[in-house]
Design goal:
Layout (H helix, E strand, L loop, with lengths): L1 E8 L3 H12 L5 E3 L26 H14 L3 E3 L3 E5 L5 E5 L3 E9 L3 E3 L15 E2 L2 H4 L7 E5 L3 H11 L4 E5 L9 H8 L4 E4 L2 E8 L7 E8 L6 E5 L2 E4 L3 E3 L30 E3 L11 H23 L1
Helix pairs in contact: 1-2, 1-6, 4-5
Amino acid sequence: MERRRLVIIGSGAAGWTAALYAARAGLKPLVVAGIQPGGQLTITDDVENYPGFPDPIGGPELMARMEQQALRYGTEVVHDTIVRVDFDRYPYVLEGDEHSWTADSVIIATGAAARWLGVKGEETYRGRGVSACATCDGFFYRNKQVAVVGGGNSAVEEALYLANLCSKVHLIHRRDTLKAERILQERLLANPRIELRWNRAVAEIAGTEGPAGGVTHVILDRTDGSGAQEELRVDGVFAAIGHDPATAVFKGQLDLDEHGYVKVVPGTTRTSRDLIMAAGDCADPNWRQAVTAAGMGCMAALDIERALAAKNA
């Protein structure tokens, strides 16, 4: 197996930023791009909140620019997916579908994926009225009506955020009680722009077709046993039923929290293993933004550079 000084697993904002900083530091990083090169931004049509771009930029274009910048300074990339790791041995062993490596150091930047509803129309209108990130896309629905689906902390936080922008927020929950923390529930119930839709589940997301089309309404099933359906007019739907970090391959190899996120030492990107850092959404259950992922990627590269220097001293 080929031995590398640094292998970066993942090619989203965290991975490419880590690669840029590591390459400029002379670490000759190898990026293993993964099953979805570019990460979640590759399914985002317009990014309006990434610093340095006064006009919207497409998510795929932003990721392509990050890749080009990292490659310019000597990053190598291979389109493979890591399927097995052995962090009990050093140098660390990384096995992909097609290639295998040993690595003196590793940055994990595998990201996370939103859980979707899995209903009719969701895929059709994703990016055109269907979202899983209020912070990313809420601006598009200023003074409009939207639906948020879920009953946990994430759903309530999304609803509260959107209530600052939208004329009405409908929180759709299949039960008659919320799982969110009590203080969040109190804020929710006190907000006049938020209307609770208890005992309902989204059966279908509907809208208009064509380039300018988008969501116009959702069909709701009653979950109280009545079997009734109803139509709710909204301009957007936000799925807020959680995220799944892409960390299954590291189970038993690194310390993960109860939700599968890689545990890092606060204020750093250091994991439970020496010379293995984690950056971006795979280690961040709170912010999940491209700019914070990029910031963590920078931190991870600097942490690796300093750790390697100390080890070789």
